[in-house]
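Quick one:
INPUT:
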């Protein structure tokens, strides 16, 4: 495909720093239903090629709210969508979806929030049969009005992926604990976290205090301080921080190590005020006072933000969808210290860009962009034509052989920009912790090495890792 020129934001100009942020023109693929808002970009058909799963409302000949599965061919092209209902209830929108191996069979399953209604607080769990068929479905009952959703190990240090939702109408977060086989505690058995600022919507997971337990960050839509950290202080027990004041209507939040200090930070998309809030973490679970960064574009309404090395320089860059008419994406080059350059604008052919993912859909080693166009009932795919690369914790590979792939599913990944998915590495997940695991084969660049680690500080690089070229020289 011919490369599309990136359009500079009005009044900002295109600096030479953007020269490597290069993407091809958007190519559209239809979905079933209407108003697609969220997506999962993973290999769900089991053929080693990246597919796209999109959540949408009923319409356009689809009688129920559903997910659409678009099988990829490995070149960045996707087939006709196949729809699967998200819950047993009809008439309510599929709002957001998340993916992960929920039943431990090696296939990517999907969890979906399906309503903002007060009387139907349903979360759908759709189990994948390994071929991309999601006909097997379970409904979970949690807090009222679930919107944001995340899949991560949330009830201790086991590898089972749990589900958490931000419940817009009940001002709570629900955590559904997984028994490891895809059976979730729900209803009275769900963990309910209160003390959330009114109308929570965005939710993200990550180990902010480096204690080996996954924490949550939640944004709330209504007035007042709108961001809280929910620290997991014991397996399944969460304590809410004091709230942080950010911009207006923070719809999405993501966690990553923005300034490369080994600690997770938070980045919040403020849809109404048209900007971002950056909150740097200190590794104890605390976040610094937010700094504000302009959203960019003709009428910034930032929605989902994705942090990935889009230009191959080793620093995390920021890609964001904007729910404008027409929709567009902004690309901010990161400086590796928590700062971002003025944005490059990529215009889209449809209105209201919402869900966004960065994955290598054409298998050339560079993260591409896939975005839902809510106003167009389709997705756009933009292939990366620059030198970008996927770090290990975002590359769709089980680099350390532990059965968990990428952040936040793999507890050894400190964030999506972590380039070390192994147990003990310079950016390991737990500072000063003692690791008693047996190291599995690492990245398969040499014959497998298994080494029992007893009393090893996870800030230490194993000699075996360095000998295999798995860590930088001392």
């Amino acid at each position: 495909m011919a490369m599309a020129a990136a359009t500079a934001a009005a009044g900002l100009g295109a600096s030479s720093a953007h020269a490597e942020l290069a993407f091809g023109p958007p190519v559209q693929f239809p979905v079933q239903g209407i108003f697609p808002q969220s997506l999962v970009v993973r290999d769900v058909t089991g053929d080693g090629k990246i597919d796209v799963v999109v959540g949408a409302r009923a319409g356009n000949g689809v009688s129920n709210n559903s997910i659409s599965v678009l099988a990829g061919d490995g070149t960045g092209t996707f087939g006709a969508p196949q729809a699967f209902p998200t819950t047993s209830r009809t008439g309510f929108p599929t709002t957001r979806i998340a993916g992960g191996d929920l039943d431990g069979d090696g296939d990517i399953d999907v969890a979906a929030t399906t309503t903002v209604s007060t009387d139907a607080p349903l979360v759908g769990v759709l189990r994948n049969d390994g071929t991309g068929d999601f006909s097997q479905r379970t409904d979970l009952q949690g807090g009222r009005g679930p919107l944001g959703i995340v899949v991560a190990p949330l009830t201790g240090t086991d590898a089972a992926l749990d589900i958490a939702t931000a419940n817009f109408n009940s001002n709570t977060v629900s955590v559904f604990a997984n028994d490891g086989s895809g059976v979730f505690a729900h209803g009275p058995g769900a963990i309910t976290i209160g003390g959330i600022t009114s109308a929570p919507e965005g939710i993200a997971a990550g180990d902010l205090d480096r204690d080996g337990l996954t924490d949550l960050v939640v944004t709330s839509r209504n007035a007042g301080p709108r961001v809280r950290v929910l620290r997991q202080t014991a397996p399944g027990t969460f304590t809410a921080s004091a709230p942080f004041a950010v911009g207006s209507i923070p719809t999405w939040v993501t966690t990553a190590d923005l300034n490369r200090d080994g600690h997770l930070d938070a980045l919040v998309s403020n849809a109404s005020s048209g900007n971002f809030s950056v909150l740097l973490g200190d590794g104890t679970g605390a976040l610094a006072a937010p700094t504000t960064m302009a959203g960019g574009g003709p009428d910034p309404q930032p929605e989902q933000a994705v942090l990935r090395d889009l230009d191959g320089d080793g620093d995390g860059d920021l890609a964001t969808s904007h729910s404008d008419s027409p929709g567009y994406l902004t690309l901010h080059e990161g400086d590796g210290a928590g700062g971002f350059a003025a944005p490059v604008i990529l215009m889209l052919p449809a209105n209201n860009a919402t869900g966004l993912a960065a994955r290598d859909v054409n298998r050339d080693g560079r993260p591409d962009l896939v975005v839902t166009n809510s106003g167009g009932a389709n997705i756009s795919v933009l292939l990366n034509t620059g030198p970008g690369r996927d770090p290990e914790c975002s590359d769709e590979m089980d680099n350390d052989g532990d059965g968990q792939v990428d952040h936040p599913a793999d507890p050894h990944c400190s964030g999506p920009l972590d380039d070390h998915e192994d147990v003990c590495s310079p950016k390991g997940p737990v500072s000063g912790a003692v690791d008693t695991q047996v190291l599995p084969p690492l990245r398969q660049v040499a014959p497998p090495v298994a080494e029992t680690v007893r009393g090893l500080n996870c800030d230490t690089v194993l000699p075996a890792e360095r000998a295999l070229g798995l860590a930088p020289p001392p």
